Amino acid sequence: MLKYIGKRLLLLIPVLLGITLVVQLLIDITPGDPAKMILGIQATPERVEALREELGLNDPLPVRYGRYLWNVLHGDFGNSLKSGLPVVQEMMQRFPYTLILVILSFILAILLGIPLGVYAAMHQYTLRDNIAMFVAIFFVSMPAFWFALMLVQWFAVKLRWLPLSGLKEWTGWILPCITLSLSLTASIARQTRSNMLEVIRQDYITTAWAKGLTARKVIYRHALKNALTPVIMVIGSMFGAFLGGALITEVIFSIPGMGQYTLTGLQNRDYPVIQSSVLILSAMFAVVILLVDIIFALVDPRIRSQYSRRGKKKGGAAD
């Protein structure tokens, strides 16, 4: 298992390098001049050119990319072209907001999605099942930004139960977390239902019923335990889209997280902010995928036995 984790960690290196190269290429071909945005439209061409030279924007692409990689390897993500402050310092102030939003939404999605999927599977082809799956499909298909605006319109503007935006009170987390979690909730519910329908038809479930076990024990101790393995993969594979949804949610609800920071960097053509934000978020996504693979290997007895057999074969060969 340790060898498997080591290989996956090594594979992250070329992935992150490829991401930094793609971002650098996209920045290079995108129209716009950060020097003009910093100095304003009244700046003379001479001042703009002098600032470009000072910022190193006139250097060839390989030189700029190599300089950025060298600085990143030494822990230097550069300074924001707009504020002049270190990018790491600004990101560390905003990253906790994004992390809290993602964690709370993930927990809410799991707590809602798994019971909903189990409930639908236990009432297959009934009105309850149809209603549960209709709700799931509705939330999967619905754009998150539209649903967020509807929540704001109803609960913040009309009913005035929750704050319109910001995080001055703990209630400010409610609408963002609901907005972000519903699409993942629906996906988890659909996948759980599908897996549960396959598992409850297995012979060992029939045996559990024949032994006279209660429905609670059969469903949650035997069936759900085996049905959750593919659900773990679904949760991990959707993390990228989930993280993207978090950025949009932050902008709508004025949460000072990585979403607001990245959007401001894009608007201002702030290259260090754009590069560092994408790199950090991509690394976060890659680490989550790695953790999901590790969890999947731990909970699936077939994978555990596969690694144990490999270890025994190598041990026997060495003897």
Key terms:
mainly alpha, 319 residues, globular, MetI-like fold
Query: What is the arithmetic mean of pLDDT?
Result: 82
Described by strand count, sense and barrel closure, the largest sheet is: none
The radius of gyration over CA amounts to 25 Å
Q: What is the overall silhouette?
A: globular
| Alpha-beta content class | mainly alpha
CATH fold title of one domain: MetI-like fold
CATH homologous superfamily caption of one domain: MetI-like
Number of helices: 14
Strand content: under 5%
Helix content: over 70%
End-to-end Cα distance: 21 Å
Question: What is the tally of beta strands?
Answer: 0
- Provide the succession of SSEs: HHHHHHHHHHHHHH
CATH C-level name of one domain: Mainly Alpha
**Low confidence ranges:** none
Query: Could you say what the CATH architecture of one domain is?
Result: Orthogonal Bundle
Sequence-ordered SSE layout with sheet pairings:
Layout: H1 2-29, H2 34-39, H3 45-55, H4 61-73, H5 87-122, H6 127-141, H7 144-158, H8 174-199, H9 203-210, H10 215-237, H11 239-252, H12 258-267, H13 271-299, H14 301-318
